Amino acid sequence: MSDTLPSREQALQLLRESQCSEKVINHCMIVADLALETAGILKGRGLKVDFELVEIGALLHDIGRSKTHTVHHAVVGAEIAMSAGLPNSVVSIIKRHVGGGITASEAEELGWPKDVYVPITLEEKVVSYADKLIENGKRAPIDITIEKLSEEMKYEAAERVRKIYDEITGIIGDYP
Fold first, then answer.
1. Rounded (10°) angle between helices 155-172 and 142-151
2. Residues 6+ away with beta carbon under 8 Å from 168
3. How far apart are CA 105 and CA 90, in angstroms?
4. Judging by beta carbons within 10 Å of its beta carbon (0-12, 13-18, 19+), is residue 89 exposed, middle or buried?
5. CA dihedral for 155, 160, 162, 163, sign (positive or negative)
6. Cα 64 from chain centroid (whole Å)
7. Per-residue CA distances from 8 to 2, 13, 69, 128 (Å)
């Protein structure tokens, strides 16, 4: 396990080597752009944000989609990232970005290893926030993601997504 973050080019290469589709890669690049924009606003509000970690974490957050498009892509992606020797900070972003986080009991129901799957650091929250605002390759209102989760009866996940959204927008303001 390295402490060194890969470059943007190395992260994109890892997505390709992992056999992510162009659609997934494009999604990751759009999420990274929004995450960096968000990090910039947070920094402007006086918060300390690791821009490089936000960018690389956002680029790689969906690497697990190279193997599955279910919620399990978070755990699969974390395994891929660990195998690639990526820093724990990136692995944590990957495994904590889904559904505004997955609780310990939900993780147990899913058969996931015992671990923390809820975003804790500001960087983890920024990537999760940005990911939930991108639908079909473009910026979309958070209500679309929340509505989808509610239709799937994932009410707790919808609530967690709303909580992260409210936390971030509470600092940066609600910008289009």
1. 170
2. 38, 42, 125, 126, 129
3. 23
4. middle
5. positive
6. 11
7. 16, 9, 23, 19
Share of the chain above pLDDT 90, in %: 87
CA-based nearest residue to 159, from 106, 80, 115: 106
Q: Which token pair is 158?
A: 């919808």
Of the candidates 102, 112, 116, 119, the one whose C-alpha atom is nearest the C-alpha of residue 58 is 119
**Stretches in the chain below the pLDDT threshold 70:** 1-2, 175-176
* Matching residue, tokens 């890892």: 14
Q: Does residue 139 sit in helix, strand or coil?
A: strand
Summarised one tens digit per residue, pLDDT across range 43-68 is 999 999 999 999 999 999 999 999 99
